[in-house]
Amino acid sequence: QVQLVESGGGLVQAGGSLRLSCAASGRTFSNYIMGWFRQAPGKEREFVSSINWSGGMTYYTDSVKGRFTISRDNAKNTVYLQMNSLKPEDTAVYYCAAKTTGWIVTSARSYDFWGQGTQVNVSS
Description:
Layout: E1 4-7, E2 10-13, E3 18-24, E4 33-39, E5 46-51, E6 58-60, E7 68-73, E8 78-83, E9 92-99, E10 113-114, E11 118-123
Parallel strand pairs: 2-11
Antiparallel strand pairs: 1-3, 3-8, 4-5, 4-9, 5-6, 7-8, 9-10, 9-11
């Protein structure tokens, strides 16, 4: 069993920045694909970014490329999402997810464990 706890959400003005963190339990964190997803009110959960076990491979949805950066620290069992140049359309609950086998994928169904989410609100 893997437990994921997100933090770092909050209210920020458009153009501002936030850094989300996701702390994971378990001794095999370094083996996991880690991903960030988000869900806005009335919308489906959507893929934001993912990172492979070493951090050497990352993937982003088009709408956040150049603005968001995913990273991980395997010594701290933590994955991060640095969000810059935030826009009102980035407002959502952001979820951290772990995928214990395979490769980076964008489908939420492929991820095995989820955090409880952290709210990000971007005002215009």
